[in-house]
Amino acid sequence: MEKFMHALQFAAYKHRFQKRKDLDGTPYINHPIGVAHILSNEAGIKDFDLLAAALLHDTIEDTETTLGELVQEFGPRIAGIVAELTDDKNLPKAERKRLQIVNAGQLTSDAIVVRLADKIYNLRDLNRSTPVGWSEERVEEYFQWSSKVARQLFGHNVQLDTILKDLFLQRNIRFD
Predict the structure, then answer these.
(1) Total structural domains in the chain?
(2) Phi, psi of 19 (to 5 degrees)
């Protein structure tokens, strides 16, 4: 529990100036907290290291945090999960999105459940409020892309699979 609380403080500090792209400009930290909440309350995951990784999952990608810093602060398991989930920001966005689909099957089970919860949070967020500057077409494209990623990840947590399939079904995306 101590490591989890440290991860919460660490993530809140690292994301302190960031906002979500919704109309309200929600504090970014709500996103990793929401991902950890989905894992704990909806997927039944009680592994505090895994929940800590969920809190930290965007720190390397979206802040100045380094992998070495996470290893030092939280150990190799948590840092490794975060590293698996980190896109290479040096690549163009389209390539990063393509690689998430292609590399999905190479993720560990720990990284997979965090990725699934991350998708659930983002898709629910899109259903609640279209981000500033996004068209309905872009929202639909995000759902389609997310379904391609999720398709590669199903089979690790029944609860998360069911939630995602329901979200996709609402958009007439099927997995027959």
Answers:
(1) 1
(2) -125, 155
